Amino acid sequence: MMKYLQNLGKSLMLPVAVLPAAAVLVGIGYAIDPEGMGSGSIIAAFLISAGNAILNFIPILFAVGVAIGMTKAKDGPAALSGLVGYLVVTTVLATDNVANLLQIKVESVNMAFENIDNVFIGIISGLIAAALYNRFSHVKLPEALAFFSGKRLVPILTAATMLVVSMILLFVWPAVYSALVSFGEAISSLGAVGAGLYGFFNRILIPTGLHHALNNVFWFDVAGINDIGNFWNGEGTLGITGRYQAGYFPIMMFGLPAAALAMYHTAKSKRKKQAASLLMAVAFASFLTGVTEPLEFSFMFLAPVLYVVHAVLTGISLFIAATFHWTAGFSFSAGLIDFLLSSRLPLANNPYMLILLGLVFAVIYYFLFRFLIIKFDFKTPGREDDDDEEVLVGETAPNTTGKDKYAMMAEAIYEGLGGDENVISVDNCATRLRLEVKDMDAVDQKKIKATGVPGINVVGKHSIQVIVGTQVQAVADEVHKLRKED
Predict the structure, then answer these.
(1) Which residues cross the membrane (predicted)?
(2) 429 has catalytic annotation
């Protein structure tokens, strides 16, 4: 199970890598026009709309990314299947369509279906599409239906499967959503403790998309709290209104960036540059704009225990801020931009104490994450099993900088593997080719090593890995071109 979650976490790296750029675009646009959200500036509108073009469709990115990452072949039809699955569910369970299915008025449709287009649905769609692709992508249908054989069959099966999933969700989703709303209303009466519980469950529910149910209770006027609206309108109680927002600032501006630093420092030496390129971007997005999903998804599935720790610390932060009546608010998210804007509002109460609290949490996050990562060998970015290659000291990856050299190298490796007659499948991780072969005795390791690769790792009767280095993607692409099946 843990291995499966780690594979899922690695699959999410593809969509996660897109998110920091979107967050920064929105953050810069929001900084240019903080009050109008782009309506008062052409440049701001351009940047915000560009960023939102990605952020508003995060579930689709996950549906496609997971479908690609969880399949053996990393093939286009798998991605198409993930998208098909997501579109089926979100269309069938759209509010208007639910009204038709249940023969009720649109106004009577459970508000749960307003949030059906969430990350949870995207991930489920991707996982189902990947499972179907791995199982049925090589199925041969009778001659009359041969056009739909193999890879073309998978999107059709995905659509049919997601119809069944939609039927289940039609009855299950409102019950789950309504239960969370009721739970939120119950803990709202617990004062500072309730704020802490809300913060904890908000983070825990992020992977499912159901955190919106809790947010509706506390941030908007579902149960009479309307924390965001009242704070920004100045209608509330000083030190009380804003308690369901304030505690996020120490976490998003300081805690999570410190966690990113800990993950960078614990990354393997050969992966530090790769880890830095991801973690620096997502940490900056979290600090500036409060967009935390890119950072959270980078370790959420790779190290779920760390994510639970993060959720607990978030709850503690909200509890402390609410206990001492330190308040600040956000209209977008709890980043630096919203902090500076909200700190001047009438209901902001000792907001700069949140900075002090954030510095404390930065220390806690850094040392706690670093200790847990090393102690339990959590597979955070830069520490994945796929990069446990035993590369000898002094050996380096091949000096190939041009496309022709990659092609020549790939051709020699493929010949050494035995070509089409012997190679069953080709995959790659961050630094090595992962291959399945029919006969290991037919592999010419000397010929492969002559290309200059740092090493070869035989991991099973039919599994072999060729350690290439950070240029592996270019080599893998060339190998795929050589394969007749591809």
Answers:
(1) 12-32, 44-66, 78-95, 115-133, 153-173, 179-201, 244-263, 275-291, 297-321, 352-373
(2) yes
CA distance 437 to 456: 14
Summarised one tens digit per residue, pLDDT across range 332-370 is 788 898 898 888 888 999 999 999 999 999 999 999 999
Predicted confidence at residue 129, as pLDDT, reads: 94
List of residues 6+ apart from 197 with CB closer than 8 A = 187, 190, 315
Strands 463-467 and 432-437, bridge-based pairing: antiparallel
Structure tokens at 479: 């190998």
Token duo for residue 305: 């225990």
Domains within the chain, CATH numbers bracketed: 403-482 (3.30.1360.60)
DSSP for 7-53, written as a single string: HHHHHTHHHHTTHHHHHHHHHHHHHHSTTTTTTT-HHHHHHHHHHHH
Buried b (16+ CB within 10 A) or exposed e, 77-106: bbbbbbbbbbbbbbebbbeebbbeeeeeee
Residues 6+ apart with CB under 8 A from 227: 218, 219, 241, 242, 243, 244, 245, 329
Which of these is catalytic: 87, 336, 408, 429? Answer: 429
Q: How far is CA 317 from the centre of its chain?
A: 23
Q: Which two tokens stand for residue 411?
A: 């051709």
Q: Give me the residues paired with residue 46 across strands.
A: none
Rg (CA), the chain: 25
Q: Which of 160, 66, 53, 79 is nearest to 120 (CA)?
A: 66
- Picking from 257, 93, 89, 67, the residue whose alpha carbon sits closest to that of residue 162 is 89
Cα–Cα dist 456/475, whole Å = 15
**What's the CA gap between 334 and 245, in Å, rounded?**
7
CB 202 within 8 A of CB 245: no
* Beta strand 455-458 pairing with 423-428: unpaired
pTM, rounded to two decimals:
0.62
Output DSSP code: residue 445.
Answer: H
What is the spatial distance between Cα 334 and Cα 243, in angstroms, rounded to a whole number? Answer: 13
Q: What is the pLDDT of residues 182-191, one digit of tens each?
A: 888 888 889 9
Closest CA to 369 of 297, 313, 285: 313
Query: Distance between CA 424 and CA 113 in Å, rounded?
Result: 44
Lay out the sheet containing 423-428: strands in order across: 423-428, 432-437, 463-467, 455-458
Which DSSP symbol is given to 474?
A: H
